[in-house]
From TrEMBL:
Family classification: Belongs to the Tom40 family.
Main location: mitochondrion
GO terms for biological process, alphabetical: monoatomic ion transport; protein import into mitochondrial matrix
Keyword Transport (UniProt): yes
Entry keyword set: Acetylation, Ion transport, Membrane, Mitochondrion, Mitochondrion outer membrane, Protein transport, Receptor, Transmembrane, Transmembrane beta strand, Transport
Role according to the record: Central component of the receptor complex responsible for the recognition and translocation of cytosolically synthesized mitochondrial preproteins. Together with TOM22 functions as the transit peptide receptor at the surface of the mitochondrion outer membrane and facilitates the movement of preproteins into the translocation pore. Directly involved in the pore formation.
Gene3D superfamilies, sorted: Porin (2.40.160.10)
Membrane-protein topology: Multi-pass membrane protein
Region (Disordered): 16-43
Organism lineage: Eukaryota, Viridiplantae, Chlorophyta, core chlorophytes, Chlorodendrophyceae
Record's protein name: Mitochondrial import receptor subunit TOM40
Subcellular localization: Mitochondrion outer membrane
């Protein structure tokens, strides 16, 4: 411990030096006020484990990195219009004209032109949310969320189609404690799942998940961690299905965020990594990424005025010599 000579007190009368002392006779070492204050500060900054923050939900474990690495790229033209009828109810109209990738047996995909129209309605208030969408081919999707209280919420997600065996339903029970988040999941295909995330320090959360697919007689268990500070968020997931996922998101400034991820499937002996960016400007937002498969993508959202937004999307796959380009417009609040 470094001590300045100002903290020494010279005694006039002679005294016998203490055993094993390196100080000359007559010199007595007093406490340094700076060391005392530092010790008190460390005691004051001790972690209060009875007041840990509540972590994010398990399904939102990687939300910061996914915002940069998973932009909603598309090919063709897209138009979205939202008309609020009052403070709680709004209707939406969406049109899409472009190509979709249809996979084939030789791991290649072919492009098929298609056009869709989608009508939707949103009903939102302080305790409940109802969102419905219906496409021109008859597919109906819906989502309902209701907050029973501050700690319990129920969610229902449905997808109904005219094809037999393709309709799905998922019921979620979200449970939240003072420093933990949990979820129970039930599906119509004999699917059962549970996940849990617990804060162990103010910046670190640990958790896990398990699921059972009754029709396929399959099960899986996964473990995860999330380290979040003011500057960065690091996450990791490991599952018995053979997947390892690591992500890192760093906040360079209030307007720039950089992110990277690594995924490894040890069953297939395949690994991919990517890095991306998320930049905010005065009236626009630019996101993009590049990965080890040779795919480079960018997604621009330009706000022309308060209710009109221009979308530009581009993606190039160098290994497959494929490209996608799309532009769109969003009108409404």
């Amino acid at each position: 411990m470094g001590v300045g000579w100002s903290s020494y007190h010279i005694q006039c009368e002679s005294s016998e030096p203490a055993n094993d002392s390196i100080l000359p006779p007559g010199v007595v070492l007093e406490s340094n006020p700076r060391d005392v204050s530092d010790k008190e500060a460390k005691q004051d900054s001790a972690v209060d484990y009875s007041a840990l923050p509540c972590p994010v939900r398990y399904e939102e474990l990687m939300r910061e990195s996914m915002m940069s690495l998973k932009p909603d790229v598309f090919e063709g033209f897209r138009f979205d219009f939202t008309k609020p009828l009052n403070n709680n109810f709004a209707v939406t109209h969406s049109c899409f004209m472009g190509n979709i990738d249809v996979p084939t047996n030789n791991q290649q995909s072919i492009k098929m032109p298609m056009g869709t129209y989608e009508f939707g309605a949103n009903l939102v208030n302080n305790k409940a949310m109802m969102i419905g969408r219906i496409l021109n081919d008859g597919r109906l999707t819906g989502r309902i969320k209701y907050d029973i209280n501050d700690n319990i919420a129920v969610k229902l997600q449905t997808q109904l189609t005219q094809e037999k065996g393709y309709s799905q339903m998922m019921l979620d029970f979200d449970l939240k404690g003072k420093d933990w988040n949990g979820q129970l999941k039930l599906g119509n295909t004999a699917f059962y799942g549970v996940n849990y995330l617990q804060s162990v320090t103010p910046t670190l959360a640990l958790g896990g998940e398990a699921f059972w697919l009754g029709q396929q007689r399959r099960s899986g268990v996964g473990f995860a961690f999330r380290k979040a500070t003011d500057k960065y968020v690091a996450t990791g997931q490991l599952a018995t299905t053979g997947l390892l996922s690591l992500t890192y998101s760093h906040k360079v400034s209030d307007k720039v965020t950089l992110a990277s991820d690594f995924m490894w499937n040890w069953n297939a002996r395949e690994a991919t990594a990517s890095c991306g960016y998320d930049c905010f400007f005065r009236q626009s937002r630019l996101r993009g990424k590049v990965d080890t498969n040779g795919v480079v993508s960018a997604y621009l959202e330009e706000r022309l005025n308060q209710t009109v937004q221009l979308l530009l999307s581009a993606e190039i796959d160098h290994s497959k010599k494929d490209y996608k380009f799309g532009f769109g417009m969003t009108i409404g609040e």
